[in-house]
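To fix ideas, we quote verbatim one protein's residues and fold tokens.
>
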Amino acid sequence: MTGAPAASWRRHLTYRLLWQKRSGAQLEMVWCYRQDFTPSDGWKDVWPRNSAGLIRVDIRP
């Protein structure tokens, strides 16, 4: 127990990057991270420990 206040709310933010070349080749990346809310500090980022929240990478020729 650290003594820090517990989050009263929690949300997950998801971002998507889609990049397409003129040739039609595509790169899609999706990542997510969590934010916790405490009345004293507001929204604070809580990055996941694995791969900085990267969920999916799709590369198509």
Remarks:
- The radius of gyration is 17 Å.
